[in-house]
Design brief:
This protein has 236 residues and is mostly helical. Helices cover 67% and strands 3% of the residues. A hairpin with a 5-residue loop joins strand 2 and strand 3 (88-90).
Length: 236
């Protein structure tokens, strides 16, 4: 019988930060939960993908019990769907629900930007500018590499809002739509549009203009407008 061993703590996908602690933080089940959550958010597990309980247990040298508990935690976040004997499947999102979620995401991130314009520190402003510079430099790289830095930009704004509850809820919803946000990055002109939209958001935050920051961030998400409709059409 293979010995159980704890896994190293996974980093939150694309942010360079530790993920928020789940209940029972530090247990093998929660470490597996965070690892699988990051794989879903990072697009390494696509919507509809089946999670093989035994394969995951074998890969991590543990019994199936912590894997089942990790699945339950993922289901509570609505990241996976439990199908009895069929096991766990990464949850897919309908086109209408996806549009609605992006609308809510726009308001949540818009509020983060509004608060960041009021509360960000000089160090946080400098960090935001540095991330944007890295994003510009990565515009010729792969869409996935660009997306990862893009996620850092948004994470920096969550932090600059100085509202831990808002940041946690925004991340929770972002994780649910992350696979779709990543796909949008692959669409034509999305990289160029993102750079322009981020520059507007950053300028409003640096200018301490909460209304403009909220408006620019909300437009950045809901603008997914035509791009998102195109994406949804491609999913049919």
């Amino acid at each position: 019988m293979r010995a159980k061993q704890a896994l190293p703590e996974a980093e939150w996908a694309g942010s360079g930060r530790k993920p928020p602690a789940a209940p029972g933080h530090g247990t093998l089940a929660n470490t597996l939960y965070r690892r699988l959550r990051d794989d879903i958010a990072g697009g390494r597990l696509d919507p509809g993908a089946r999670l093989d309980e035994q394969e995951i247990a074998d890969r991590h040298g543990c019994s199936r019990t912590p894997v089942r508990e990790a699945f339950r935690l993922l289901a509570s976040e609505r990241l996976v769907e439990l199908r009895g004997r069929q096991g766990a499947v990464v949850r897919s999102i309908s086109a209408q629900t996806l549009i609605e979620m992006f609308q809510v995401m726009g308001e949540l991130e818009g509020l983060c930007a509004r608060l960041a314009a009021r509360r960000s520190t000089p160090a946080q402003n400098a960090a935001l500018q540095a991330i944007h510079a890295r994003l510009e430099a990565a515009s010729g790289d792969t869409a996935d590499a660009f997306y990862d830095i893009n996620a850092e930009f948004h994470e920096a704004i969550y932090e600059a809002a100085h509202n831990a509850f808002l940041a946690e809820e925004t991340r929770r919803l972002r994780n649910r739509v992350a696979a779709y946000r990543r796909r949008v990055t692959h669409m034509p002109t999305r990289v160029e549009d993102t750079l322009r939209e981020h520059a507007e958001i950053m300028a409003a935050i640096l200018a301490r203009d909460p209304e403009a920051a909220h408006r620019a961030m909300r437009a950045h998400l809901t603008l997914l407008g035509e791009n998102l409709l195109d994406l949804i059409a491609g999913l049919d």
